[in-house]
Amino acid sequence: MIRVLLVDDQPLLRSGFRALLDLEDDIEVVAEAGDGMAGVALAREHLPDIALIDIQMPVVDGIEATRRIAADPALAGVHVVILTNYGLDEYVFDALRAGAAGFLVKDVLPEDFVHAVRVAARGDALLAPSITRRLIDQYVARPRRPAAGGGPAGLTDREREAVALVARGLSNEEIAQQMAISPLTAKTHVNRAMTKLQARDRAQLVVFAYESGLVTPGDG
């Protein structure tokens, strides 16, 4: 059973999301909150698999709530998915840097919304849609403080190649095809890179790849 926490300051939207998820046999909404501070507290209380968090809220916004969840070792199993009204919201990339596993635009189709919850629960990043690539291309190009560790030092050539392909939105199966290796080996390269870089999930590999210069905006 996938346990979900809903955090949004609009009760009507929360009700709509809950209604969609309640139709699924393998998904359970365990709690709701109307601001980020309450959301973090409920995450600690219920330990959900997924926290769906609105990016703009009162008291504590979605970015800070994501940062607090990502920084809490007790919440290491919580995957944050940011909810935004706009596909190119200027704060979304900051949320990915803070530890979010990906983002969803609120007008997503119901079936895509439910699918995204399952994808995030598997630990995969919600970074494949072209709109996400455009967002990353736009906002990663802004001048930023280099990521901790500076560059891809410590990774093998194959691990660097795998991380670059993750940053372009490829799945393990697609990475395996590109690298002419088995899907299991591709997964091993990705997991080892995550361990070496202390990345929570694949989204953090994407952030690292861009901020370290391993890939650049506009790469195919």
UniProtKB/TrEMBL annotation:
**Which residues carry the post-translational modification 4-aspartylphosphate, per the record?**
54
**What GO molecular function annotations does the UniProt record carry, in alphabetical order?**
DNA binding
Q: Name one GO biological process term.
A: regulation of DNA-templated transcription
CDD domains named in the record: LuxR_C_like (cd06170), REC_NarL-like (cd17535)
Which PROSITE patterns is this protein grouped with?
HTH_LUXR_2, RESPONSE_REGULATORY
Pfam families under this entry? GerE, Response_reg
Matching entries from InterPro entries are given as: CheY-like_superfamily, NreC/VraR/RcsB-like_REC, Sig_transdc_resp-reg_C-effctor, Sig_transdc_resp-reg_receiver, Tscrpt_reg_LuxR_C, WalR-like
Q: Which domain of life is it from?
A: Bacteria
Keywords attached to this Swiss-Prot or TrEMBL record, sorted alphabetically, are: DNA-binding, Phosphoprotein, Transcription, Transcription regulation
Q: Where is the HTH luxR-type domain?
A: 148-213
Q: What is this protein called?
A: DNA-binding response regulator
Q: What is the lineage of its organism?
A: Bacteria, Bacillati, Actinomycetota, Actinomycetes, Streptosporangiales
